[in-house]
Amino acid sequence: MDVKPPPDRLYGRIKGKALRPRQEWLLAHFLPRVHWPEIPFSEGLGQTWLEVGFGGGEHAHALSVANPGVGIIAAEVFETGICSLLSRLAADEVTDPVPPANLRLFTDDARPLIRERPDASLAKLFLMFPDPWPKARHAKRRFVHPEILGEVARVLVPGGEWRIASDDPTYQDWTDEVLAAQSLFRVAERTESRPEGWPPTRYEAKAISAGRQPVYWSLLRA
C-alpha cells in the first residue's frame, strides 16, 4: 500500500452554524473545567480509554456512565459536537454544573495527543464512524492509516482493544486492506451487527436509516 503520510490535521472546518447562547456559555465556562490535559482525572481511577472523534458525544458519555472506574478522554474538534457532549453533562437550567469525575474533553486533533501519550498508557481506543474521506487523494487524512498503526499500538497495553466502526464502503475496504498488511493487531471480530457492550451512536442510526450497512472491528494489540 503506497500512500502519503497523514498530516497532523485530519479535519476540515471546525465551526458550523451560529451557536446558541447556552452553547457559547458551555464553551466559555464549562469546557475549561473538563478540558484535558489541564484538568486531570479524579484520583482512584484505573484504566484510561480514548475516543477519537466523539461526534455528538453519546458514545463517550455512555461509556463514562457504564464504566465509572475508568478515565475516558474524548477527542473532538467540531464546536457543535463539543457543545452536544457538554450539554449532556450540564442540564440547561444548571449554572454551576458538576464536572464528571471520569470524562475529559480534548478539543484538538487526536494524533498529536496519541504521540504524546506514554507507552502502554491506554487500555482501549475507539474510532466510531470517522469521516470516510472517500476520495483517493484524501486517503492520507483517514485515521486508519499504515502510519498511525505503530503509534496506536505503542500507547495501547498488550492485549488492549481498538474498536472501529464505519458505514462507508470505501472506508470499510480501506480498513480491511490496512489491517491485512500489518501484524501489530489481531482482528478479534469483524461483524455487521453491533457487538454487545458497544453503545449506539446517532451516526450509526442515520446510516442504518439510509440503508448503509455498518461494519464493526475489534482489534487486540498483539
Could you give a short description of this structure?
It contains seven helices and seven strands, in the order H-E-H-E-H-E-H-E-H-E-H-E-H-E.
Model description:
This protein has helices at residues 21-34, 58-66, 79-89, 110-116, 146-155, 169-180, 202-209; strands spanning 48-52, 71-75, 103-106, 122-128, 156-166, 185-191, 215-221. It is α/β, with parallel strands linked by helices. The chain has one domain (21-221): Vaccinia Virus protein VP39 (Rossmann fold). It has a 7-stranded mixed beta sheet with strand order 3-2-1-4-5-7-6, sandwiched between helices. Helix 1 (21-34) packs across helix 3 (79-89). The radius of gyration is 17 Å and the shape is globular.
Numbering strands along the chain, what is their spatial order in the largest sheet?
3-2-1-4-5-7-6
Reported CATH architecture? 3-Layer(aba) Sandwich
Shape: globular
Supply the CATH class.
Answer: Alpha Beta
Terminal CA distance reads: 21 Å
Give start-end ranges of low-pLDDT stretches: none
Task: Please summarize the sheet with the most strands.
Answer: 7 strands, mixed
Count of alpha and pi helical runs? 7
CATH superfamily: Vaccinia Virus protein VP39
Radius of gyration over C-alpha positions, nearest whole angstrom: 17 Å
Order of helices and strands: HEHEHEHEHEHEHE
Structural class: alpha/beta
Number of discrete domains: 1
CATH topology: Rossmann fold
Report helical residue fraction.
25-40%
- What is the mean pLDDT? 92
